[in-house]
Design brief:
The structure holds two protein chains of two kinds. By secondary structure, chain A is α/β, with parallel strands linked by helices. Chain A has helices at about 45-50, 70-80, 95-105, 115-125, 135-150, 165-180, 195, 215-225, 265-270, 280-295, and strands spanning about 5-15, 20-30, 35-40, 60-65, 65-70, 80-85, 155-160, 185-190, 200-205, 210-215, 225-230, 245-250, 255-260, 275-280. Chain A folds into two domains: about 5-210, Rossmann fold (3-Layer(aba) Sandwich), CATH 3.40.50.300; about 220-295, Alpha-Beta Plaits (2-Layer Sandwich), CATH 3.30.70. In chain B, helix 1 packs antiparallel against helix 3 (about 60-80), helix 3 (about 60-80) runs parallel beside helix 7 and helix 7 (about 140-170) packs parallel to helix 11 (about 220-245). The radius of gyration of chain B is 19 Å and the shape is globular. In chain B, about 40% of the residues are buried. Classes of the chains: A alpha/beta, B mainly alpha.
Amino acid sequence: MNVPAIEFLNVSKSFRQKQVLDSVRFTVPQGAICGLLGSNGSGKSTSMKILLDLVRPSEGRALVLGMDANNPAESLAVRRRVACVTEDKSFYPYMTVQQVLDYARKFFNGWNTERLSVLLKRFELDRSCLAKNLSKGNRAKLALTLALCRSPEVLILDEPTEGLDPLAREDFLQELVQASLDGVSILICTHQLAEVEKIIGSIVLLEKGKVLLHAEVETLKEKSRFYHLTFRDQPPAQIAGLPANARISRAGRSMVVSSVGERWDWRKSFADLGVEEKPMTLQEIYGEVLKINREKRGGDGNLE
Amino acid sequence: METWNKFWLESRTRLFWISAVYFLMAVGVAWMILKVPFIREPHMWEAQQRDLGGVQSDLFGFWFGFIQPFLVIPLALTLAPNHWTTETANRTVHFSLCLPVSRRSETVARLLWFHLWLAFLVFYTSSLLFGCEVLMNYPRSFFSHLVQCSLNTLAFGVITSLWFAFSSFLWDQSKATAGTSLLVFLLAVPLLYKKESFPGLYAVYELLVGRQWFLKGEFPWRSVFLNLALIWGFCEIGIRRIEQKDF
């Protein structure tokens, strides 16, 4: 049976009195690239940490390749098959790059030496440099090199391109696509939406610890639109028949209706108006979902 | 072995310096054994048997009972039996914990590594003093020296394990050091009283270092077991706490 690469089963987490994750539930199938998105403090990093057993959930279970990520016995097996780039991207300050690589290599049977050489050359990393003297970008490169050389089945990446130069970012994205083609499942948490839009297959959008949206990117983009309406007089105060996840913004005689995940049949109400439809980028979808949710706050706010 | 290699790379410089400090202290006391004529009873067993004074009545007592305990807390601070506090400060804790090594096994490796260094420092500096005694023809037995070193190492192990347990809760080296030092000091207070009087009855350190062996010539099994039980207990408390901690 093909078990999902990652499964969150109603995972909740509280730190003291603060609820950081609230019944989070989503699945990443094997071989997929999924983007975990959300504003600062939405619970992305905590979710990643739960998968790596750095943080234990208060309720629910997180499974990686069918194994409980927070069961002490199973989490070891998970960490043998999973590679990660955590938000810190810091390495032992007393080791050189070569020593860090040598140290990590011994924990993994499937260490790919050829790939290591290629990546070190591509990222221009100096093996003799002390890890503490690496720049932020070079630390990110070393973290990515370590993650990709392990020959993992699942990659968990928390802001992996933070600090990278544009060329290195491009190289990294190519590596991710190649890894995905090789069957590696990837969960990537990033704010660089324009960058990853080309490669991710689905997104999970978190806001205040809850899943706001979990959808395939292509379907979402297909069904999400901006509708620009220009009226001869004042726009109407209310519009009937709008989709549930729609938002209106007005400027003088113009009105923009943004609808996420569902097309709006504007012809029913405004057949006589010239309505301009514009597709949304992932960045725009993200922004609109958050705005719609904030407007709706008071209800459950779940757009799933 | 990889983890031990990491520990070595991490603390070799500090180990060098702390070993040097221990060595210099031992050289100072050795010089006193060789040169200073005021030593009343150069070997403790006889001194204790004749009840000529407390543990600090001779230089060995001074060394084992006073100088070495003062070096244990700085040693714990320098080599950190709870290396997760250092890794958290260095922000390398996520990298370490994402490797396929259990928290328990890495913590146990660190504790073992730390206590082996502790034993090494106690033994090699004390051996220097033993050498001086042999040189001066003082009638001190090698077995007595060996047992005293072992018991002191175990007793220091209790203190550092306590420090480890404190640090696993407080997660701050200075707070853990303050807490341990306070407790160590409070437990030392009964030593100031006569052993028959109320506080003197609770002189834990005398039990830990096996004073009755020196007094009666018995092997201090009770002390050995008590030390081992305390070390295991404190370490287990700390390890469990680390296993449950969110990083």
